[in-house]
TrEMBL record, chains A, B:
It is a multi-pass membrane protein. It holds the Pfam family Ion_trans. The chain crosses the membrane at residues 45-63, 122-150, 180-202, 253-275, 395-417, 429-448, 469-488, 508-531, 543-563, 614-636. Signal peptide: none annotated. One of its GO terms (molecular function) is voltage-gated channel activity. The keyword Phosphoprotein does not apply. GO terms for cellular component: late endosome membrane; lysosomal membrane; monoatomic ion channel complex. Its main location: membrane. InterPro entries: Ion_trans_dom (IPR005821), TPC2 (IPR028798), Volt_channel_dom_sf (IPR027359). Belongs to the calcium channel alpha-1 subunit (TC 1.A.1.11) family. Two pore calcium channel subfamily. It comes from Onychorhynchus coronatus. It catalyses: Ca(2+)(in) = Ca(2+)(out); Na(+)(in) = Na(+)(out). This is Two pore channel protein 2. Residues 52-278, 398-639 form the Ion transport domain.
Length: 691, 691
């Protein structure tokens, strides 16, 4: 009947508007029950549970058996890690798998059978789940004694498939692969030709004194290849050439040629290629988001225009304002936007909305949220007004910066003077007294600023929040120090008391003061630009960081499985060193370029076996070469965009924009045309449009 | 009188045309004598003498007293370097100075007194000469015993001032400095804040076992600063964090934060800034070259139009074709261009040329030199035609590549098998026989190709020239081997005879074969693109390389002066190591990033004094940070340009363009307008145009 139909159409419109807001695809089932399921699936609770499950299953690696989560990394000192009994982590895992099974079923149902077969990600998801569950059963049936557990390597896939941004980025990276492969091939050719050259050049001679180079670096093909590969990462440079160089300087020409060609040209060529490929990446992704938004809004319009209450017009379809109001009431969206749209709907005062008008109403969604600071309080007294002027003036802020700098310098002086003193000789009086004075000044500054600006205005500036928070923490620390150790006086050197020693307290206070000094950043124009660029970059990098986590997780798990027990405490320094690094990789895997650097150095001195070599070379290629280059490409892209538009913005710098990637590109984006939108809508697998 | 005037005008036009061809400025004196001097000064001989002088004065450093030009760099073994007697190098130097004095006088005279005062480069040139001559006199009057000789550091200036491209590049770099300084400031802030943090974090404790980190890396302010600075170059990573890390894993957070912020963000920000500044650099420089060319041609036109024989026209000025022919006859230019211009002049068959026609005639100068390969010989016999078809076919070339690959593989196999054998056990028969066979094949291939293509066509392809030359060298080597050692037979292991042992001969042959394998490059599309980009880059980089040479020369000379005798052979390995590097810097200074890397590592272990630290840090900043970033910026610029236009060119790939930077940008260049040209011409200090 008509009423139920109307309800359905309203619900469809609500879901399409929500899709538009979240930049989601609208290709899902649109019958009543599916819509309810769809809204429930994308509700905050559901998505939060899913994220939690992914976090839990990834975090399991830290408590599972060959984990290395101990305070020290030194194999000689560390206590054995806690081993959970068999079945504990496994049951948590099973719970997670059940959530994933529910997730994949709902997702598959919602996009429909026909679409399901086209969606490779969903198929892979199901396959991963099947493999993981099988592996889980095998593992339990052998009561956890099987050390090879494939499901652990597969885990990051769950993270990957849950983020559309990461999937998009991966696709982008994938399209760059052929060109990257060409450069890597070129590098391989470079490496192999030079290896042959090196083996011919540094061949074994009759005089054993003369062939040090051969003995250490070029004894056979794998050795030579490794030496030169490591030279490419610059880890063993110039050690590798010293023996030859001290025999004859001319040998250095070989190494110079190799490094210049390999490091300067080919490696940077990789940067150029990746940058070239990613130049349009951000723009393209923002463009496709825009298309999704326009499509969702258009779909809502089309659905609403088929409502029975609308008078059928031959030429154009219209939507009644009442229906739209109903939809807006039901849709979940930012309340500021909702109010703005309702307001403009009232202002327009037209009963029937055309498609263009409908789209125009929703342009509010694309607009900057201009942040208005609350007004300063208005004081009646003349004296208070003067005070307000004085302490609200920027110069008062500059004075604060100068005081902070003075504090930093005083700490620095004390540090230099005390550098070589024994802890027992140290006198904390001077530093204690000075810090006490400075913290009092900070407190005063904060209070005066609050007086001048009012608490709400004060808190609306991020720099003030940063400042105030640190001041309060410093105050609390200082008060608790005095409560425990009394006021500072000459020879103030009490013994250890309470949670922290006085010395630790003073150090903590000093660190916070150094950290507080960062408040000067917004006052320096170039620095502010750099910092905002970096913050933007961090936002845009989330997808890349996610992929990096996926890769590192897989590598770390593989590494743990490969090298479990391979490193034993021999009392030998270099072995411990290596152990330090191996752990290191697991925990702070993103510490990449540098960590690998040394691993490769170890490669060159043949501490580890051939398999480990292949593992580390793969890791170096992915983490150091490809990821760092991707990062540089994104940084270049972001920075150049920012730089070009710095001039535009400077006049508006008072207003703080909550800038998003979408807004950054707004003036270069192309609006999708009516035809494109309608064509896409007609391709919708579940929605039958009447016309 | 009119005849002499006409001669003068013709000569002026000739010089202006030559200026246009060489992209030189036309702001010089234009009277008859000056013109003669100008043409003489810019004649090949004169410029060649000047370049030679610059080379000689720069090369003097290799033979002057504290030089290190010996075969080995090991201080324990090397013989004392040859010390020229006092007065020898000095007299060569004086000769050079005299040439420079002549150079600067001619240059100053030619641009005229008024212009001279505006030209800071010329003033600096004169100043440098005065300082150098004074220093020379002081040095000689103390009979070469003064070790501080400023003139040696000033020498690279002579190289710098002689190249307009280098001066332009320097100006460009100069304009980037403020922004680079901002980032360097940011880096300094980053470094100092983290140093304070580190000193507070890794303070001395009561337990001596626990403060290894403090003892080794953070003992006092300079130590801490150095440790973190070196961490920024990644040279001492992760050594610097191992003691702290093995105490508590959480300490690694500090180092990770420092490295991510410093290395990933700030360092790459520097790349972004430099790239952003240099994005337009090439285009701008090419644009200004184009302006100079058009200006020179226009000036020639204006001068010729005042010739008496031309009928004075009120509206427009014209140039007679005869006068132009006379000018072209006299001007020194590429004969191909000259012929083409004369041909189009005849074709146009107009007696009077307007300014636009005049410019159009000279457009031939901007055109690509399309290289036409000579035709293949036409054989009468049917059999020969078949042969020609077979051996001229690309597949024959591919076969050659396959054979070369087979040869490489066979050498590789022998190398792997012989890797661990003693020289006395080695049997050269197998390799000798195989190489003999392959070289015969190469000879045959070359001859057949010459047969099919004809000698002239064969030689017109660079890949064939490369191929043929190597084949001939290989043949000569092989023949001389057989002449000395006889034909290979099992157990072919003759003793040392003649200039080279058999083993050395075989090695040399093998290296050449490996080198010859590079002939496959043009057959692989992507590789060909990369190689042409690199070759282009090398052309565009000449100016940068020149500046690099200047900087390195100054650094090397300063280094020699600072550290002369500072490193003595102690029998201690690390000292010799350092010595190895110090020399190294002098000779192969462009081996920068890597060399410094280790020097900085040495810094961190406090092998060298504070002055050396400052010297090396400055060197690292300039050579590694700034220069590498400049290089990356240029590479990105070049590569992206090439990449974008790859599609256009692909259809034309058969024709080999002699591509220059000017041609690369031709479709984006703007032609200067008539008004700009005339305005510039009227500002000419020496040329009085009648109208």
């Amino acid at each position: 009947d008509a009423g139920a139909d109307n309800d359905l159409y309203i619900n469809q419109a609500v879901v399409f508007i929500e899709d538009a807001i979240q930049y989601r695809s609208i290709n899902h089932r649109v019958d009543s029950k599916s819509l309810w399921l769809y809204r429930w699936y994308y509700s905050r609770t559901c998505q939060w549970i899913l994220s939690l499950t992914i976090t839990v299953i990834l975090a399991l690696a830290f408590v599972e058996e060959p984990s290395s989560l101990t305070v020290t990394s030194d194999v000689r000192y560390r206590l054995p890690a806690w081993n959970p009994p068999c079945g504990l982590t496994e049951s948590v895992e099973l719970l997670c798998f059940l959530v994933f099974v529910a997730d994949v079923s709902v997702k598959s149902y919602l996009i429909g059978w026909k679409e399901f077969w086209k969606n490779k990600w969903l198929m892979a998801y199901i396959l991963t789940l099947i493999v993981s569950l099988t592996d889980w059963i095998v593992s339990l049936s052998f009561s956890c004694t099987v050390s090879l557990r494939i499901r652990r390597i597969l885990r990051p896939f769950f993270l990957l498939q849950n983020s559309s941004m990461m999937k998009k980025t991966l696709k982008s990276i994938n399209s760059t692969l052929p060109e990257m492969a060409s450069v890597v091939l070129l590098l391989a050719l470079h490496l192999s030709l030079f290896t042959m050259f090196a083996m011919l050049l540094f061949a074994r001679t009759k005089d054993n004194q003369q062939d040090k180079e051969w003995v250490v670096y070029f004894r056979n093909l794998p050795d030579s290849l490794t030496s030169l590969l490591v030279l490419l990462t610059a880890a063993n440079n110039p050690d590798v050439m010293i023996p030859a160089y001290s025999k004859n300087r001319a040998y250095s020409i070989f190494f110079i040629l190799f490094t210049v060609l390999g490091n300067l040209f080919l490696m940077n060529l990789l940067t150029a290629i990746i940058y070239n490929q990613f130049r349009g990446y951000l723009l393209k992704s923002v463009q496709s988001s825009l298309f999704r938004r326009r499509l969702g809004i258009r779909a809502a319009f089309e659905v609403l225009s088929t409502l029975k209450e609308t008078p059928a017009s031959a030429q154009q379809s219209y939507v009644s304002a009442g229906a739209l109001q109903q939809v807006l009431q039901k849709a979940e969206m930012d309340s500021r936007c909702k109010q703005a749209i309702l307001r403009s709907l009232k202002m327009c005062s037209c009963d029937q909305l055309s498609a263009a008008q409908f789209q125009k109403l929703f342009e509010e969604l694309d607009k900057d949220a201009i942040k208005q600071h609350p007004p300063s309080p208005e004081y009646q007294s003349h004296f208070m007004q003067k005070l307000q002027f004085a302490f609200g003036h920027p110069y008062f802020g500059y004075l604060g910066n100068v005081v902070a700098l003075a504090n930093i310098i005083s700490i620095c002086v004390v540090l230099v003077m005390d550098a070589d003193k024994q802890p027992s000789e140290r006198d904390d009086f001077f530093l204690g007294a000075i810090n006490c004075f400075f913290i009092l000044y900070y407190l005063l500054e904060m209070l005066l600023k609050i007086l001048a600006m009012g608490l709400r205005r004060y808190l609306s500036y991020p720099s003030n929040r940063f400042d105030g928070l640190l001041t309060v923490i410093l105050l609390i620390l200082e008060i608790s120090t005095f409560a425990v150790y009394g006021f500072p006086h000459p020879g103030w050197r009490p013994e250890f008391m309470g949670l922290l020693s006085l010395w630790d307290m003073v150090r903590l206070v000093n660190m916070l003061i150094v950290f507080r000094f960062l408040r000067i950043i917004p006052n320096m124009k170039f620095m502010a630009l750099v910092v905002t660029t970096l913050l933007d970059l961090v936002k845009n990098l989330r997808a890349f960081a996610g992929i990096l986590v996926v890769v590192f997780y897989a590598f770390a798990i593989t590494g743990i499985m490969l090298f479990k027990g391979a490193v034993v405490p021999l009392g030998n320094n270099s072995i411990i060193y290596f152990k330090g690094k191996c752990d290191f990789m697991v925990i702070s895997a993103h510490f990449q370029a540098e960590g690998v650097h040394c691993l490769l150095y170890l490669l060159s001195v043949n501490l580890i076996c051939r398999w480990a070599k292949i593992y580390f070379v793969a890791w170096w290629l992915i983490s150091s070469v490809i990821w760092v280059n991707l990062f540089v490409a994104l940084l270049l892209e972001n920075f150049i965009h920012k730089w070009d538009r710095r001039c535009h913005r400077e006049s508006l710098s008072d207003i703080e924009y909550q800038r998003t990637v979408e807004l950054m590109f707004r003036d270069v984006l192309e609006e999708p045309t009516e035809e494109e939108l309608m064509e896409k809508l007609h391709q919708h697998p579940h929605l039958q449009l009447c016309r």
